[in-house]
Amino acid sequence: MNANLVKDLPEARPEEWLDTLIDAENVTVERIVSHGHTSPATGWYDQPRHEWVTVLTGRGTVAFEDGEEVTLGPGDHLTIPAHRRHRVAWTAPGEPTVWLAVHYD
Amino acid sequence: MNANLVKDLPEARPEEWLDTLIDAENVTVERIVSHGHTSPATGWYDQPRHEWVTVLTGRGTVAFEDGEEVTLGPGDHLTIPAHRRHRVAWTAPGEPTVWLAVHYD
User: A69: domain range?
Assistant: First the structure.
C-alpha cells in the first residue's frame, strides 16, 4: 500500500483488500477496501476485541445479529463491542469503499 | 461531537478542538479539528507513546526537531515513533483540517 489511504486504490477482486497499518501488542489498525463485497452470508464476525470503524470513502452497512443495521458513509463511525456478532451486509457497488478499523482491548 | 467525523464541524476558536473517540487502557483515538492552528512555536511534543496520524479533510504539516517536514492531505498518514519530537508547523488557513490520531504503546 502506498502512503495514502484513499488514492490509487487496488482494483476489485473476489476478496476484499486488507492492509495492516499498525500491528502492536494491544491495538491493530487496518484499512479494508471493498468493491461491493459483503461478509459471507453464513457467518457472523465474533471478535475478541472491541472494534472502532469509520468509512473514509464509499458506503457500507454493518448488520448485527440482533437485527440492527447501520449504514456508514464518509466520516461516519461506529464502535462494535467485543463479541457483538456482526457482518458487513452491503457495500456500495461500482465504487470502492475504504474502511478504517481499530481493534483494541 | 456528533456521529460523523467530518460534517457539522465546530467553528474556529483560539484553540484546536480535540475529541476523544476511544480512551482504552492501551490506546487513545482522537479527532483534532484545526483552523489554521499551529503548535506553540516554543514547544515540541515529546510523547511517551507512538502516534499514527492521518488527515481526513484539509491539510497540515508536521515538523520534526531534526528538520524533516511532512505535509499531509486527505488520506495521507504518518507514524511518529514515541519520543520523536515534533510539532504542527502549519494547517490550512480558511478551512478546517481534521486529523485522526491513534496513540499506542
Answer: 17-104
Q: What's the complex ipTM?
A: 0.91
- What predicted TM-score, i.e. pTM, was given to this entire model? 0.93
Please tell me the predicted confidence (pLDDT) of residue A11.
Answer: 92
B6 inside domain: no
Whether A104 sits inside 8 A of B27 (CB atoms) is yes
Q: Could you list the beta-strand ranges (E) of chain B.
A: 17-23, 27-34, 50-57, 60-64, 69-72, 77-80, 86-91, 97-104
Interface of A with B in 64-83 (CB under 8 A): 74-79
Q: How large is the average pLDDT for residues A58-85?
A: 96
pLDDT tens for A6-38 read 999 999 988 899 999 999 999 999 999 999 988
Contact list, A102 vs chain B (CB under 8 Å): 22, 27, 29, 102
In a domain, A9, yes or no: no
Q: Which residue of A77, A78, A97, A105 is the best one to mutate when testing the B interface, meaning the one whose CB has the most B CBs within 10 A?
A: A77
SS3 breakdown of chain B: % helix, strand, coil, rounded to 5?
0, 50, 50
